[in-house]
């Protein structure tokens, strides 16, 4: 008998990852598919040969099926209503990023989770791969000394169509959350201030600003510098961003694709203008699944083990606040404090 009865809310592009994951688990049963457009839900049921009802309203689906977990894979504008409704009906929620569409939404969602006594955990799939785990370990090992300057470059030119093309801040709201969350993960630090300049370059196919530069001061004294664009044709970086962390004794590099490494000076008795450096390879020890599957493994493990998940809303609110405070800074032209 499956322990987890799942309602899938939002059967668009991203739902395939979640459904394919659910189908790998014996303790999970998808009991309903929900979409504003019921045909979308019906087509998904057909595609995966799912023998379950389809709905247009998540509350009705939960009540009629007795579900205990909701996957919220709807668009950002629907996340708050779906999450709050599901929590109030006694379900845990595993939801796509971002937490709502504003800081106020995120605070209300976290409050709803606390009051319900259920878990609300956010998808941060880009924390779950061998290389970022090795990079985090390398940065935090002391190999490069005290990390003081964290840099992430993100330059890609995806032509999505759909909601992102008409959002006000598509890059910062829909994508940079991953990079900001990765910066917290790598540094083990939380932000204390941000200055953000958002803009839209000539030729951008987005209505809102698809490029941004953000400077975050972190609570361990480090500065995190983010440069990103979603309208950058040619010479793409990895979706994981290209990282350079400068510490007091050396530099750690991860291009987002290959194995991370550090370069540290070769010790010598004599003063040198520029020291020769040696390469230190990161240790790839993470043996979990990648991406969505890894994050979903952690979400279910947290319920089974009765503990807080790594990407629980109480942690994720620090990442999503980087998004909303960056947008506030861009709109006001001022440095914003957390
Ligand atoms: N973690 C990642 O790497 C990643 C990647 C892509 C998208 N996402 C996130 O996943 C979410 C969905 O993105 P997508 O690309 O699948 O979008 P999409 O537009 O393809 O699909 C969203 C679906 O949700 C449905 N929907 C919207 N409001 C609803 C509501 N109130 N009730 C029921 N259904 C509703 C829409 O009809 C649509 O079918 C977004 O939050 C996005 O930011 C995450």
Automatic annotation (TrEMBL):
One protein family per Pfam: GFO_IDH_MocA
Residues of the GFO/IDH/MocA-like oxidoreductase domain: 133-252
Superkingdom of this protein's organism: Bacteria
Boundaries of every Gfo/Idh/MocA-like oxidoreductase N-terminal domain copy: 4-122
GO molecular function, one term: nucleotide binding
InterPro entries: Gfo/Idh/MocA-like_OxRdtase_N, Gfo/Idh/MocA_Oxidoreductases, GFO_IDH_MocA-like_dom, NAD(P)-bd_dom_sf
PANTHER family reported for this sequence: BILIVERDIN REDUCTASE A
Annotated protein name in UniProt: Gfo/Idh/MocA family oxidoreductase
Organism: Lederbergia citrisecunda
Lineage per the UniProt record: Bacteria, Bacillati, Bacillota, Bacilli, Bacillales
